[in-house]
Amino acid sequence: MAAQWAKTVRALADGREIRYYDSELRERSATDTRDLAPVESRSHTTLDALTGEWITHATHRQTRTFLPSTDLCPLCPSVSGRATEIPEPDYEVVVFDNRFSAFAGGPGHCDVVCFTSAHDTTFAALGLARARMVVDVWADRTADLTARDGVAQVFCFENHGEEIGVTLSHPHGQIYAYPFITPRAEKILVSADRHRRETGRDLFEDVLARERDDENRIVATNDEWLAFVPVAARWPFEVQLFPRRRVADIPDLDDSQRDGFADLYLDMLQRFAALFDESMPYIAAWNQAPATHRDAWWLHMQLFSIRRAPGKLKYLAGSESAMGAFINDTDPAAVAAQLRAAR
Amino acid sequence: MAAQWAKTVRALADGREIRYYDSELRERSATDTRDLAPVESRSHTTLDALTGEWITHATHRQTRTFLPSTDLCPLCPSVSGRATEIPEPDYEVVVFDNRFSAFAGGPGHCDVVCFTSAHDTTFAALGLARARMVVDVWADRTADLTARDGVAQVFCFENHGEEIGVTLSHPHGQIYAYPFITPRAEKILVSADRHRRETGRDLFEDVLARERDDENRIVATNDEWLAFVPVAARWPFEVQLFPRRRVADIPDLDDSQRDGFADLYLDMLQRFAALFDESMPYIAAWNQAPATHRDAWWLHMQLFSIRRAPGKLKYLAGSESAMGAFINDTDPAAVAAQLRAAR
C-alpha cells in the first residue's frame, strides 16, 4: 500500500516542534498551555583521542523525567487540567523535539516518536497499518534530519523495557541525528573498505549471501526481507533484518519494502515477547547510511535483548564495557530455533 | 618494598590449576575432595565481518553459579563438610582456572583471582600490603599467560557490585587471556598509528601531557602515578590511572611503581565508595599491551561506575549498545571535583 498521511507541524510552549502524523487530514490546532522554561543547552562532543570515538557530554539530562506514574505520563494526550508533551486530546503518531536532547545547542538533534496514544500497549501490538505508518514517519524524519547541516548519521531506535533503563513506559521510540559518524558505522565502513581492497567485492553482499545460505540461523523471511540470527551474534537474543533489495536508508525503501518490513518486524517482536513467561526488554536499532557514505551501505535493523534466560540478564561487565570484547552465552543456531518455535 | 611471596601450584579435582600466593612459605597440600565432572569446552570465537570484531560464544556458561547465599560461597576456603573451589582451610591470595571459562577449549584462558579469604569485605578495605601483593599476582599471571601460544592480550579486571551483574560477592577479580586483540586495544593502536603518521609524535605521550596539564580533572597523584577523569569520559564516574614512567604492562612495573599504584588505587576505590550513601558498583580494567605491540603501548587502568546519581544507574541503551556512541550525563571536571571532595 502507498503512504497516505497528513502532517501538521506545531510549536510547543518552549519553542520545540511537534509533528502530528495522521492517516487522514485532521485539525491539529491545540495550544501548549504549559509554562515551560526555555530548553537548556549544555551538551558538547569531545574526541576520545585514544579510541578515536566521539563522546557526548549532556549534563542537563541528569534531571530528566524518571519513571513517572501512569497518570503523569508526559507522552499521553493532554486532558483537561493536565497538559502533557502532546497538546492535542488524541493523536495517531507524533514526533516532537526531545526536551532532554543529547545534542542540545549543537548540530545534532533528538526526536521522541510516540507510536500510539494508547499508554498500555507495545509496538508488537500496534497492528500492521500503524506499524506501516511508523515506517513512513521514520522515513520522513530521516529525510528531514539528513538534509540538515552538520548531521552525519540518523539513528531511529526503540529502547523497550525497564531492564534497560527505559524511564517512560508509553510506547515510544527515539531518533538521534548525530553530528558524527557513530563508532559502529565507522567500523563497518573500515571493514567494507578493506574487504573491497582485498577481494574486489562488496562486504554487505558477501555477508548477506553467507547469512542467507545458512538456514539454521534464519528465523523468518518474506518476499522483501530476511530475519536471521547473525553468525557473530553478540547479544543473547539478536536478530538482524535486511531488505533483499539494497537501499541506503529508510527513505529509500519503496512501498513494497515498507509493507514487508512492517509485517516481518511485528512477527519478530511477537516472537521475542513469546519467548519467556516474563517481560522481554529489547533494543531495536536502525543502521542507516552515514550521509557521506550512501553508496557503501546496506540498510538493516538490529533487534536484540539483554535477557539471556528467565530471571537472568546479560550484563555488560569488564570484557564488554571496558575492552569491547563480547562474550555471548547463547548459540546463534539454537536461538534461531527458539525464535522459530516461539509464537 | 620488594615483592616477597611464595607460590604453590596444585590441581583441582577436574584438573584445573589453583595457585596459592603466600607472603611466607606455607604448606599448601590440601586435596580437592569434590566429585567434579570434567570441564566442558564449547566456546569458539567468530569474526563479526561487518565490525571486524571477534565475538566469543561460550554456551556452557549459561549454567554458571548465580548469586549463591553466603554459606554456599565457592570462593571461601573449604571447611569440614563443605568443599569449595579452594581446598585449603585458609589462604591469602589464590588464582584458579575458571570452571566457566569464556575460552574453554581454545587458546584463550580465564582465571579467577580471590583477593582475600574474608567474604564480607572489598578491595577498598584490603590494606596496602595486600593490595601490593595483588599487583604482584597480576604481574605473575600476566607474564605466564602472555608467554602462552595464541594469547594476544591479557586483561586483569574486577567487576564489583550486583548492579553490573556480579554473581559472587566474595572479593575477587578475573583475568582473561584473549586469543585476539580486544576491540578497545585495536582502536587505540589504529589511533596511535595515525597520530604517528600525521604528527610524528606518540599518541600516549600527547594524551597524557594534555591530561596532566588540566588540573581541573586531576583527582589525586603521587610520585609514580596520576589519577584523572579523562576529558572524553564515557561513564558517569570514570577515572584513569597512568604511571608517570612508561611501561607496557604490569610485569614491567618496578617496585616503586607497584607501591605507588597500590596506594593511589586504594585511595580511588575509597573515594568511589564514599561518593553516595549507597553501594557504588564499579569495573576496574587494566589496559595492558597486546603481545605483538609492546612498544606502542602505555599501561593504564580504567576505573568506572555505571552509577550516575543516588538511585540512578547509567544503562547502555540504543545509542551505546547498538551504535557505540556514548552519551554521558556528567561533566568530567565536576566529577573530578566530587571525587577530590570524597573520603
UniProtKB/TrEMBL annotation, chains A, B:
Active site: 172 (tele-ump-histidine intermediate)
Keyword ATP-binding: no
Details of cofactor binding: Binds 1 zinc ion per subunit.
One cellular component term from this protein's GO annotations in UniProt: cytoplasm
Domain called Galactose-1-phosphate uridyl transferase N-terminal: residue spans: 108-181
Signal peptide (residue range): none
Cofactor: Zn(2+)
Keyword set, alphabetical order: Carbohydrate metabolism, Galactose metabolism, Metal-binding, Nucleotidyltransferase, Transferase, Zinc
Pfam families: GalP_UDP_tr_C (PF02744), GalP_UDP_transf (PF01087)
Xref: Gene3D superfamilies: HIT-like
Residue ranges of domain Galactose-1-phosphate uridyl transferase C-terminal in the record: 195-302
Superkingdom of this protein's organism: Bacteria
EC number, UniProt record: 2.7.7.12
GO BP terms: galactose catabolic process via UDP-galactose, Leloir pathway
GO MF term set: UDP-glucose:hexose-1-phosphate uridylyltransferase activity; zinc ion binding
UniProt-annotated binding residues for Zn(2+): 73, 76, 119, 170
PANTHER family: GALACTOSE-1-PHOSPHATE URIDYLYLTRANSFERASE (PTHR11943)
Family listed: Belongs to the galactose-1-phosphate uridylyltransferase type 1 family.
Protein's recorded name: Galactose-1-phosphate uridylyltransferase
Organism taxonomic ancestry: Bacteria, Bacillati, Actinomycetota, Actinomycetes, Mycobacteriales
This protein's encoding gene: galT
